[in-house]
Design goal:
mainly alpha, 26 helices, 2 strands, globular
């Protein structure tokens, strides 16, 4: 890190996703201490690493509660009336309740620097860890939650972890979504948590998009960056409009987000000034990608970048290098097969998918992709065989069912089989309108006019 230059002009900090953190933001897999520390009130109040650690040795200034008493009044906190444990014991140490830790690589114990109040009530509901049950291994989370209620009452202080946990749920109620939309632009909450909630959510209706647009003007670069990335699935017109408003952002992280946002967009209609700014942001993005290329995942991202820019040969080159670095990085196989198929090199594409199948014989996805390639070649027999294998490996693979149904409807004219497969797909995804439409067409061909018209009418009323 170069002194005197903003962090966000040198790095993009990992947000609190559940790949590396628990749902509430506590450490789980190996992650950076900064990601935890930026969640804390201490960070928000200007506390720095050197307030607790020696700048050169990193050793703590004190190995007992005097460390925390530099700021917190001892009579209020270093007391049994606060921690409810015998004084001068491990259980009475502030860090053992507010800085739980985890062993990495067998012997590397690291403490969580988000400095949070234990929330066993969240553990009961979401399965997150808590300090109480971490020490009292003979007790469960419910016991811990009830004990906290006895000590401190029924109400817990508002905490950003509530929003993190709700945002990672599969189903969110309307009131919960309203809470999350408010949280995103709540400047009192940690910016890394607000950025994570943005990442966790979909933004579809006008009210939600307004929340996202407001976040684009947030004072925090990490919030602006993650808000920008949510527009990647929008139309090219909207992406262009958003990108042009932020192409000259003062922070490199955000300008890199702009470069990601305009991937694949025709730049011929951009002004010369905008083209110059875009060239700068793209160069910054490419420099970031190459800085990660020593790792297989970084090489994968670089290859994806070239693929999105229709530079297929460079994409293939870097996908191959990613596999040389890590042959177990399975996302490379599907992307490399896609790159080969784009240049009509179907044999190499099939060979790559076969390698993936050997690596993960229980996966259905490579069989689905092989089927698409066989359809492209014109070998429908092998294509159907691969789709059936895909369904066997993954009984919920509705896309393979739909493709088989479409084949029997369009090419083979076996309407009985077409109906069977699309109905199987609809059992899993009853609201899928593409599947409903195909079934209506099948009914029409079978002479079941009333059923077909009823489906068509329902589809029209839902548009």
């Amino acid at each position: 890190m170069e002194p005197g230059i903003k962090f966000e002009d040198q790095f993009i900090l990992q947000i609190l996703n559940t790949e590396y953190y628990h749902g509430d933001g506590q450490i789980d897999e190996e992650d950076y201490v900064l990601g935890s520390f930026r969640q804390s009130k201490m960070f928000a109040e200007g506390v720095r690493c050197t307030d607790c650690h020696d700048a050169h040795s990193l050793k703590l200034k004190f190995d007992d509660n005097r460390l925390c008493a530099q700021c917190h009044v001892p009579d209020n906190y270093n007391s049994k009336k606060h921690h409810f444990h015998a004084e001068n014991t491990d259980a009475s140490l502030c860090i053992n309740c507010h800085m739980t830790g985890k062993n990495y690589m067998g012997n590397d114990f690291r403490r969580d620097h988000s400095f949070r109040i234990p929330r066993p009530d969240q553990s009961v509901k979401y399965g997150t860890p808590n300090a109480c049950a971490g020490c009292h291994e003979d007790k469960d989370d419910k016991w811990a939650a009830n004990t906290i209620k006895k000590w401190y009452g029924n109400n817990r202080k508002k905490h950003f972890s509530d929003a993190l946990l709700v945002s990672s749920k599969l189903e969110i109620t309307e009131s919960e979504r309203q809470m999350l939309d408010t949280f995103i632009n709540d400047l009192e909450s940690p910016n890394i948590a607000r950025a994570t909630v943005i990442e966790n959510l979909d933004f579809t209706n006008d009210a939600q998009i307004e929340v996202l647009l407001k976040a684009l003007n947030d004072s925090s670069a990490i919030v602006r960056y993650n808000a920008l990335l949510k527009f990647r699935n929008f139309s090219p017109q909207i992406r262009t409009s958003i990108a042009l408003k932020h192409i000259s952002d003062s922070t490199k992280m955000v300008r890199i987000g702009v470069a990601q946002l305009v991937l694949g967009i025709d730049e011929s209609n951009f002004s010369e000034t905008d083209k110059i700014s875009l060239k700068k942001s793209r160069e910054e993005f490419e420099a970031m990608l190459f800085s990660r290329a020593d790792f297989a995942t970084g090489r994968l991202q670089l290859a994806d970048y070239y693929l999105q820019n229709d530079d297929i040969n460079n994409a293939i080159k870097h996908y191959k290098m990613a596999l040389k670095k890590d042959s177990l990085l399975t996302p490379v196989y599907s992307n490399l097969a896609t790159a080969y198929s784009l240049i009509k090199d179907n044999l190499n594409a099939i060979e790559i998918l076969d390698k993936w199948i050997k690596l993960e014989p229980k996966q259905g996805r490579p069989h689905f992709l092989k089927a698409l390639l066989y359809f492209e070649i014109g070998d429908s027999v092998l294509a159907i065989s691969e789709l059936e294998l895909a369904i066997k490996r993954d009984p919920n693979d509705t896309r393979s069912m739909y493709n088989i149904a479409t084949y029997y409807y369009q090419k083979n004219k076996d309407l009985v089989l077409a109906e069977k497969y699309v109905k199987n797909a609809l059992k899993i995804e009853p609201e899928n309108q593409n599947y409903q439409y195909l079934l209506a067409l099948i009914y029409q061909q079978q002479g079941q006019t009333e059923k077909s018209q009823r489906l068509m009418k329902a589809l029209q009323s839902n548009q």
